[in-house]
Amino acid sequence: MSSAPEPGQKGKKFLQHAISCGVVAVVVLAIVGYQGIRKFGHNPGGYWFKKGLQYNLGKGVTQDYVEARDLYQKAADAGNTQAMNNLGLLYEQGQGGPQDYSKALHWYLKAANANNTKAMVNLAELYEDGSGTTQDYATARDWYQKAANAGNARAMNNLAELYEKGEGVTQDYTKARQWYQRSADKGNADAKQALSRLTALNGP
User: Fold this and answer.
1) Both ends of the chain: CA-CA distance in Å?
2) What pLDDT shows up at residue 2?
């Protein structure tokens, strides 16, 4: 499968062609286009992530998980944490190739260590479920806590569930309700339902 062109290649070829043709207007357009493409050179990870996302979602191109995985890999190798997280998702879900929880765990952890809160939650869920690793509620709690402290509503909801069930923490309905409330305040639908359920069972 052909891959997307390296950042700058298209602009360089266009510029060279325009100069050889001696067309001033085309040369000007080529320079403008080349300068625009060169901006990606300062952030190659962002370029590859954007291209990968297009193929992942099928935005403006035919949806292709294999191509998305390849492009996310390039972006992740360039240090883009969004690509690391999305690459982990493709491995976890078996899209674009075989399902591989170990590789999902690897990329989630790398992104989480770079402070990507979505990756922290995805990583915590693998530890909570024991997918690709030994089930470890305490480690799941730690990552949920870190993401929740950073404002991630999904992490707040999942942390509340651990407190409600007493998994990885001492069971504490007060803390569960507090975290559900904080998550609900951010619009998390699961947290809103949990609050309604707790209220019906235990009162306000």
Assistant:
1) 58
2) 44
